[in-house]
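agent> Task received from the user: take the single chain below, predict its 3D structure, and emit structure tokens. No templates, no multimer pairing.
agent> Plan: (1) validate residues, (2) run structure prediction, (3) serialize to tokens, (4) report one or two observations.
agent> Step 1 OK, no nonstandard residues flagged.
tool_call: predict_structure(input=
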Amino acid sequence: MSYKQLKAFILMLVCLYIVESEAQLQVGFYQSSCGLAEFIVKQEVRNGFFKDNGVAAGLVRLHFHDCFVRGCDGSVLIDSTPSNTAEKDAPPNNPSLRGFEVIDNAKSRLEAICKGVVSCADILAFAARDSIEITGGLGYDVPAGRRDGRVSLASEALSNLPPPTFNVNQLTQLFSNKGLTQEEMVTLSGAHTLGRSHCTSFTNRLYNFNSNSSQDPTLDTMYAAQLRQKCPQNSNANLVVPMDPSSPAVTDVGYYRGVLANRGLLTSDQTLLTSPRTQSQVVQNVQNPFLWKNKFAAAMVNMGKIGVLTGNAGEIRANCRVINS
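)
tool_result: status=success, residues=325
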């Protein structure tokens, strides 16, 4: 190889390194461009939480539902228009998603001091972390540098989000499609320790389950009786119950204790006991809550990297609900 060729080769490697570096998210991404970014998001999460502690669960779920559709690009925040039904209005998201006002408040404050700098996708990732921390989970560093997507389609939410009826193999495959392991699936399922579920997501387990049984036999009978009181057959679609009745606003292993006691609310919760490997992880999480909190923080970081837009891709939305004109 001649000197000229070697020089060109080295230059190409440097260019590749720069492109690769740009494609990586970085902890402290806004340190020089908007130093107060994470602090302001944390303040708004705290404000929202003190008005309604259920908003923490909403923000964690928003981040999850964002990342599983088109990657973590803030597309779940975009409003529908007369010509397009957006992700947030797909059946898995409407009326159950909440916490949008916290993102709006953080974004408007950030636009006032750092116009066009902080993406909605990053605000959502920070807000999910802060929600876990404020409810007793472990805080963690959020690598940032995501940019916002310009497409949001309800049909893609339907095809990418796991329904509450999925079994362990279906869940494992769906998470694998997103680059997450089965262990990360079990770990992230623990987010169901927070928040609530609409009755419509699990009444199939309470009434007319199959030709042999009106009730799902894997569901604890006392718990099923309590649920039937709160969720009468053919009742109001807006009725909700806590996912983890023992501590619905605390990030802890109560969810896994419930699953072990056959009190997993959704089919997709109770199914974790149907595989020896996932069952052993449920037991391990109950026995070592601190280990689970560490694994959960790491899994959230990994989830936050799914399909991100970086560098010059996408945009920085001025309003999280509307793509830039």
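agent> Step 4: summary for the user.
Strands lie at 196-198, 240-242.
agent> Done.
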